[in-house]
Give the backbone structure.
Amino acid sequence: AQTVTQSQPEMSVQEAETVTLSCTYDTSESDYYLFWYKQPPSRQMILVIRQEAYKQQNATENRFSVNFQKAAKSFSLKISDSQLGDAAMYFCALSGTYKYIFGTGTRLKVLA
Amino acid sequence: DAGVIQSPRHEVTEMGQEVTLRCKPISGHNSLFWYRQTMMRGLELLIYFNNNVPIDDSGMPEDRFSAKMPNASFSTLKIQPSEPRDSAVYFCASRWHLETSVETQYFGPGTRLLVL
């Protein structure tokens, strides 16, 4: 069975600082993909970043980057230069052939 | 490009009434997913379709829930009869499914359902 665990229900960061959100997963598949989605108060689910498991290089998207540790089955999200608009729920997701498995989410608060 | 379109955005109904949620996936996508999100249970996958065919409906909570995808551009999720515990945000998502890779799921804005 595939599982995704986000052990931090809530995190806080000062504006302009850096924060890292943790995610661990378990899967028996050799080919899979990992995602981070952001859900602001509007409830819209927005893709932040994706990582193919076969790629060793960590994905980056502007201020967002991941630390993908395949052996440890860890997939953390780093947000640099945090902005007030980054305040949201962040979901880690694992995908096999068809389904996505989502974690329970981490609520990020950005302090002015 | 238009994203995933869901209607209605908000629905308030009384217990026992039939509720129909609608979804139009992104043009060209061949996989469609229905999710339910609540505070207690988080984000749950209800059912997904590939090429208009239901592949896995094991997440559908009970017989009161049914989903259809009559064509590539339209899907419905129906609850009959509705109950207060069905109150949640229902998301539709779509993606292009390939055998050789996993493409990103794109979510609609959700339908916020309140059953009184």
